[in-house]
Design brief:
378 residues; alpha/beta; 8-stranded mixed β-sheet; 5-stranded mixed β-sheet; 14 helices; 19% strand
Length: 378
């Protein structure tokens, strides 16, 4: 954390942020009856409209569809343990959510645009590029993109690692994709607490964070009543945004004027300062992809990759596991089973397996180009 004397500086940086991603949690969007909280959201929408009138661009990531759908279908939350019921609720609730935003933005002369995404829109590099083009065009046309995961086709309860399992992380990936300046995560908490067992009073709120340390993560426990995330998820999201060069704010979305406060430089919530910035493709490799397979390499290839000046040659590969195609991401392990990093494969697993099985002649070619490889330590 920075010294108290330096605490005003990040607030000043927020005043100059031009491209902003704002995430609203379910507890902000919905009232106690799990209905869209029109009265409260009117204040937040007015804050967003004010930012846009100042020449800023805003992307809104909104939770709430499942909760709204469950209320419309008169289903108890216990029914949401059934994935098919959850998807049905999302289908119903998404209509209600977008209708509410269309009506909320209309008095301000703004058009809301629905953007539903799946993990494939991030893990597939071509779809990843197309999604950015869509965002850029919507912002250029003056619309407000309202983003949500397409839960109607999402396997919500898979045991497989997910690119995003909550809208906090989705919002961070959207900021990363758009090279945004600031990410604001609004839920029913006032910020990161020094001691979660104590009330959220001024002295217990961490105001500025420069690094997400193990101690901070240890303090982030529990989750909100309505959403799938929690403070731990928000810290993960903050880390992604910080590596993308963005400021992050975690604040209480139940305060109608909180958006105005944040971007006027007032002390609101917890501010996370940008960290060492990863380049665009490296951010994609680090956070927005899923690993499709794994290869093991020998000591010489391991040393070449660690030196950072060489591609991974097929001649250095000693083993191949899983199925993957050219262009998909694979994990690379050293001779002692240590994970070196991940990269984009130049050839598929079947072709690679055939070359590894052939003992008559050298195995030529590149498996992962240096510019498409990310060391785990980066």
């Amino acid at each position: 954390m920075t010294k108290k004397a330096e605490a005003g500086e990040p607030r000043a940086l927020l005043k100059s942020a031009r491209r902003i991603v704002i995430k609203l949690g379910s507890g902000v969007v919905c009232d106690a009856n799990q209905e869209f909280d029109h009265k409260h959201l009117a204040g937040l929408v007015a804050g967003i409209a004010a930012l846009i009138s100042e020449g800023r661009q805003v992307v809104l990531v909104s939770s709430g569809a499942i909760a709204l759908g469950a209320a419309e279908l008169k289903l108890h939350r216990s029914r949401l343990h059934d994935a098919s019921v959850t998807r049905a609720c999302a289908a119903v609730g998404q209509c209600k959510l977008m209708q509410a935003y269309v009506l909320a933005f209309r008095p301000h002369g703004l058009t809301a645009a629905q953007v539903l995404v799946t993990e494939d829109d991030f893990t597939d590099l071509e779809r990843y590029k197309i999604l950015r083009q869509t965002f850029e065009k919507l912002l250029k046309l003056g619309a407000v993109p309202v983003v949500n995961e397409n839960d109607t086709v999402t396997n919500l309860y898979t045991a497989q690692p997910a690119v995003f399992r909550d809208n906090d992380r989705l919002a961070a990936l959207v900021l990363s994709k758009l090279d945004g300046d600031a990410l604001v995560l609004l839920s029913n908490v006032e910020g990161l607490l020094r001691d979660p067992a104590r009330p959220a009073e001024a002295g217990n709120i961490v105001r500025v964070v420069t690094e997400i340390s193990p101690d901070l993560r240890a303090a982030a426990s529990g989750k909100s009543g309505l959403g799938r995330g929690g403070m731990a998820a928000k810290l993960d999201s903050a880390e992604i945004a910080m590596r993308a060069g963005g400021l992050v704010v975690i604040a209480d979305g139940k305060k109608p004027a909180v958006i105005r406060e944040i971007f006027s430089g007032a002390e609101a919530g917890t501010v996370f300062l940008p960290g060492s910035r990863l380049a665009g493709k490296r951010r994609w490799l680090a956070y927005a992809t899923t690993v499709r397979g794994q290869v093991t390499i020998n000591a010489n290839a391991c040393a070449a990759l660690r030196n950072g000046h060489a591609s991974l040659l097929i001649s250095g590969v000693t083993g191949c596991h899983g199925e993957f195609s050219p262009g998909q991401v694979i994990s690379v392990q050293g001779p002692e089973s240590e994970t070196l990093g991940r990269g984009i494969a130049e050839c598929g697993s079947q072709e690679l397996a055939r070359m590894l099985a052939a003992h008559d002649g050298p195995r030529r070619g590149i498996l992962v180009r240096r510019e498409n490889f990310l060391l785990s330590s980066e």
